[in-house]
Amino acid sequence: MAADDLPIAASERHSDEFPIIVEGLVNRFGEQTVHDDLSLEVRQGEILGVVGGSGTGKSVLMRSIIGLQRPSAGNVEVFGQSITDAEPDEAIGVRCRWGVLFQGGALFSTLTVGENVQVPLKQFYPEIRPELLKDIARYKVMLSGLPEDAANKYPAELSGGMKKRAGLARALALDPELLFLDEPTAGLDPIGAARFDQLTRELKETLGLTVFLITHDLDTLYEICDRVAVLADKQVVAVGTIPELLETGHPWIEEYFNGPRGRAAQASQARDERRKASSSSRSMDKPHKGKA
Length: 292
Ligand SMILES: Nc1ncnc2c1ncn2[C@@H]1O[C@H](COP(=O)(O)OP(=O)(O)OP(=O)(O)O)[C@@H](O)[C@H]1O
Ligand SMILES: [Mg+2]
Known about the structure:
Blueprint: H1 10-17, E1 20-29, E2 32-42, E3 47-52, H2 58-65, E4 73-78, E5 81-82, H3 92-95, E6 98-101, H4 113-124, H5 130-143, H6 160-171, E7 178-182, H7 190-207, E8 210-214, H8 218-224, E9 227-232, E10 235-240, H9 242-247, H10 251-258, H11 260-285
Parallel strand pairs: 3-8, 3-9, 6-7, 7-8
Antiparallel strand pairs: 1-2, 1-4, 4-5, 9-10
Helix pairs in contact: 4-5, 4-6, 5-6, 7-8, 8-11, 10-11
The structure holds adenosine-5'-triphosphate (ATP) and magnesium ion.
């Protein structure tokens, strides 16, 4: 029987569809329980927005998924491999399939942007020649929307928005399939935030990424997220599109999406859609100028 004819195990099919599966996650710090029996599945190719009040455990959830936080109980699988049971070395194959932009950027201040991007490359591919490393880093810097010369700058020489893009360049260093972004637009002005959102969407579409995106930014949720997961009461209380979330009637969801800021983001999204619809109908109405 050819390899292609072999039946695919159900669990493997499941992990193809859901690159991240979290089941029964518990995280405790001393007396404090942050997560209690939390479960979540992230679909292949989606941008999943993750929201929740400050301190509800969004960053801890991300750290648990990428194996930086050993949970008190539960299981996390990424690409079908258990992260919770694995020793750091065992998960190495799966670790190079994701990239992470940490809350606050976490760039090494004594390294240039280019050298920061080279860190994961050197870690996973120590055999790559220095000139090639430099070329790859420069390419990632440009892919993240920074000018080429930003590769030679130190983090202290960059604006807040540029630092985010530098962090993104480092997250993209290993050509990941999965991208984790923790508050990527926090602290950016609205235009910078909208551009970053656009870039995230474009990267997802062109590189076929699955994106786990923690955010407080309502515009980001409306503009680019396929689904949104809501953290409250130590669990993921709902996952779905924003209209689906609103149907749940959960008080936090109501307050978040129907509060003044939520309504403003909704109105701006509706305006955008009307603008898009009217410009596409105008272009359809236009007589063709080309050959008859
Ligand atoms: N290493 C740690 N040791 C002890 N407590 C921790 C640790 N990491 C996180 N916590 C606690 O866990 C809770 C959740 O933290 P987390 O950083 O995940 O919140 P968050 O939802 O990301 O908040 P924010 O929106 O402000 O970023 C907080 O109360 C925090 O103090
Ligand atoms: Mg956080």
